[in-house]
Amino acid sequence: MLTILGGLLLLSVGAGFVGSISGLGGGVFIVPALVVVSHLPIQVAIAASLISVVATSAGASVAFVRDGWTNLRVAIVLECATVTGAISGAYCAGIVPARVLELLFAAIMLQSAYFSLHKPGDDIVPNSDPLAERLRLAGDLPGDGVQPVIPYGVVNVPGGAALMVVAGLMSGLLGIGSGALKVMAMDYIMHLPLKVSSATSNFMIGVTAGAGALVFLFRGDVSTVIAGPVALGVTAGALMGSRVLPYANVQALRIVFVIIMVLIAAEMSWRALAGL
Amino acid sequence: MATGPELQSIQDEETRLLRVWTPMILRTILIAAVTVLIIGLVQSTFGSPGHYVRRFHELQRGIDLRRPRDFGPLVGDALGGDGHSIMTIGLMLLTMVPIARVTFTLLVFLREKDYPYVAMTGYVLVALILGAALGRIG
Asked: Into how many domains does chain B fold?
């Protein structure tokens, strides 16, 4: 038993660590690790991953909320879209064939790899559009004593919300946080500053993954023997990653992560097409 | 509906409450869930290692998963020291994190009579509960 448990914990700590350093979250790494290395069905991996994503989001968002990086109003507005997608996705995950899930996962890995290479820059708008103004979504980038507080506006809420439904759907279907999609929606479409987008995405991931996890848990599709160690391992790994991150050469590591993601996408596609 | 300076004051109070209390709620439930999970894992390791290994291999072979258990017997087994039941309660606690956070946010908006946001957080909370109900009925 100790060999199985040790292996699961090791995989989970590794996935949480890499997920934290790469900024993509542990979900995109633990699902393929459980499928390819531990030879578990993808639905079992998805259920375990969703629960671990809830844990890492809760842990990671504490400091961002406290320090004022998270735009709580934007999060609440967009959560309406992500939970709708996540519940639909988690419900469908029980009936969608494993091959389709594996192919979708490969596509999401490629999107995440592309996102890692082409991280968007800040394109801050000074004023919100009328809908965002009405919802009071504008915020301030916190100052640090040296840098002054910088106000920012928010635009195109419906466009951002539409992409959030897709992000939620992918989260529920594939057991991931869909952080890359969420940040893209907020940064490219709604023009939020990148750090605010990342912090707000992290905060929302907990509710998105939680919505999916509740469907799996109450359907009886969460296997305790897998989900327990995975939740503990990924959380511990993410915590270690956040400690190491300030000292890591993220630029150099990004290339390594992209290669890993492309290899995972190839492996998942091969499994799906070859019917392994 | 409030306007001008009154609206700004409501918004500032909401933000203050959310920024102070949300991290505390997240951290408290997370620590409680992780503690319960560790206790369950240790108990499983030493209490029923054979069951753990058998279940792992069943999953690898794609043997159908267990159906959800009723809460009463689950708590009873956990109190009796069953490691797997303790871990299941730990996992349930983890999924309570978003529900607790959204419920708290809803209460803050209700207190400040910020009705558009009451409606939105209310929708998210209902959706979370509906998700659990959908899972239960399969």
From this structure: 1
Does the pLDDT value for residue A91 go beyond 70? yes
Q: Which of A38, A54, A221 sits opposite B65 (nearest CB)?
A: A221
Q: Which residues of B touch A228 (CB under 8 A)?
A: 37, 40-41, 44, 87, 90-91
DSSP run (H or E) holding A151: strand A150-152
User: How far is CA A174 from each of CA A29, A50, A106, A140, A215, rounded to the nearest angstrom?
Assistant: 11, 8, 10, 34, 13
- The interface residues of chain A toward chain B in range 192-211, judged by CB-CB distance below 8 A, are 206-207, 209-211
Choose among A105, A89, A97, A85: nearest CA to A172.
A89
CA distance B76 to chain A (A): 17
Distance CA B38, CA B117 (A): 37
Which residue ranges make up each domain of chain A?
A: 2-274
pTM for this model (two decimals): 0.86
Q: Is the CB of residue B34 less than 8 Å away from at least one CB of chain A?
A: yes
Domain that holds residue B98: 18-137
Residue B88 has pLDDT above 50, yes or no: yes
Q: What is the pLDDT of residue A63?
A: 82
Encode pLDDT of A218-231 as tens digits: 888 888 999 999 99
Write out the two tokens for A11.
């995989």
* Residue B61 domain-assigned (yes or no): yes
Q: At what angle do helices A42-66 and B4-47 cross, to 10 degrees?
A: 140
Assigned domain for B10 exists: no
Structure tokens at A116: 């890692």
Can you tell me the mean pLDDT for A165-182?
90
Each residue's pLDDT tens digit, A122-148: 778 888 999 999 999 999 888 766 677
**What is the spatial distance between Cα A82 and Cα A88, in angstroms, rounded to a whole number?**
10
Angle (CA) B54 B57 B62, round 5°: 125
Tens of pLDDT, residue by residue over A32-51, are: 899 989 999 888 999 999 99
